UniProtKB/TrEMBL annotation:
InterPro entries reported for this sequence: MdtA-like_BSH (IPR058625), RND_pump_MFP (IPR006143)
Native organism: Flavobacterium resistens
PANTHER family for the chain: HLYD FAMILY OF SECRETION PROTEINS, MULTIDRUG RESISTANCE PROTEIN MDTA
NCBIfam families: RND_mfp (TIGR01730)
Multidrug resistance protein MdtA-like barrel-sandwich hybrid domain residues: 78-205
Protein name (Swiss-Prot/TrEMBL): Efflux RND transporter periplasmic adaptor subunit
One GO term describing the cellular component: efflux pump complex
Single annotated GO MF: efflux transmembrane transporter activity
Family as reported in the entry's similarity comment: Belongs to the membrane fusion protein (MFP) (TC 8.A.1) family.
Taxonomic classification: Bacteria, Pseudomonadati, Bacteroidota, Flavobacteriia, Flavobacteriales
């Protein structure tokens, strides 16, 4: 009997233990669930098509003609000695700026000085003989314009005076030619000779470049001839510098070459950074009045055709257009002549930004940063 009662008490204790454990797990799970935030439903917000617009108006369009060219010196000359001898002095080096009339180099002048002295002696002898022959003919002057031409030529030839005078002038020229004097102001280039080296007559000794102004040579196609004229303004951008220079057209070759192009030259002032042989981009602008002008970003493709989006009462409607002129930033446009529904007029509000993914009849919001 006691054994049975003990067994029931033990069973009740085990049952109470399991019930306590279960309640403990239940309370923990309930507490954890209370700590986790509740999941909220996402609210769908309609996407706003924010755009930037401009008001279309008649204005001047800057038509651009683009070409590539090369910078060449407006004045560039190879300088040579007229006589041969050893180089005695060299006063400049490559890259130096020199002034007109400045002595640049000279040869050893000794033998040419001797030739002048000898020629001067021979000239004096011939002149005495020339004067004696004139006196024998009753002529007491040596002024050429006071002597009959036939008598002067005969006496000068027989006395050797004309030959002696020629030799003297030649000797003077050769002595003078032992020096190189700058014929104009500019920079020295391509000089390779050194002092005490022998220099040959007629061989290129140096190049002198007037770099105060440069010419830019470029080609334009035949159909663009009517858009250029002498003294038209041009812009030149050297590829190596990325800086824009202004100039004007100085010459237009009237002949069309085998490639269907014409040679055009423009003059540009050097600021000290331009160098002979630089490659440049040339841009010529011509003003065309009375055009409907829009930024390039305003024109997009729909159905493989060019369209503009107009804003009417807060909605975007496309209209087919044709671009008639183009420059680096803008188009000149007209309503497409083959589309009866196309219309374009001054005063229309045109979308210039935010139009890439727009559909016809989309609702739009004009940005406060509207361009005017």
């Amino acid at each position: 009997m006691n054994i049975i009662i003990y067994s029931k008490i033990k069973t009740l204790r085990n049952l109470s233990f399991f019930i306590g454990i279960s309640l403990l797990f239940y309370n923990c799970a309930k507490s954890k669930a209370a700590e986790e935030p509740s999941m909220e439903k996402k609210v769908y917000v309609a996407e706003k098509n924010e755009v930037v617009t401009v008001v279309l108006k008649n204005e001047s369009f800057q038509k651009e003609l683009i070409s590539n060219g090369k910078i060449v010196a407006a004045q560039k000359n190879s300088i040579q000695f007229e006589v041969s001898d050893k180089l005695e002095h060299l006063y400049v080096k490559n890259g130096d700026f020199v002034h007109k009339g400045q002595v640049l180099a000279n040869l050893n002048p000794f033998k040419y000085q001797q030739r002048v002295a000898r020629a001067e002696i021979e000239l004096k002898k011939a002149k005495f003989q020339f004067e004696d022959m004139l006196v024998g003919r009753g002529i007491f002057t040596t002024r050429r314009d006071s002597i009959p031409r036939d008598i002067y030529e005969m006496v000068a030839s027989r006395s050797g005076y004309d030959v002696a005078l020629l030799e003297f002038k030649t000797a003077q020229f050769e002595l003078k030619s032992t020096k190189i004097i700058a014929p104009f102001s500019g920079k020295v280039a391509n000089m390779e000779s050194r002092v005490y080296e022998n220099v040959s007559a007629g061989k290129d000794f140096m190049t002198l470049i007037d770099d105060g102004f440069f010419e830019v040579e470029f080609h334009m196609i035949e159909s663009e001839m009517s858009d250029v004229a002498l003294n038209s303004r041009v812009q030149m951008i050297p590829f190596a510098l990325g800086k824009t220079y202004s100039g004007h057209i100085s010459s237009i070759n009237p002949l069309i070459d085998k490639n269907g192009t014409i040679l055009v030259k423009a003059v540009v002032k050097n600021d000290g950074k331009l160098t002979e042989g630089m490659n440049v981009k040339v841009r010529i602008q011509k003003e065309i009045k009375g055009q409907l002008v829009v930024p390039k970003s305003a024109v997009v493709l729909r159905d493989n055709q060019e369209v503009l989006f107009k804003v009417i009462n807060g909605r975007a409607y496309w209209t087919y257009v044709k671009t008639t002129l183009e420059n680096s930033s803008s188009y000149s446009v007209i309503a497409h002549p083959d589309k009866s529904s196309s219309s374009l007029a001054p005063g229309d509000t045109i979308i210039v930004s935010g139009n890439l993914n727009l559909a016809h009849d989309s609702e739009v919001v004009v940005s406060p940063n509207e361009k005017n």
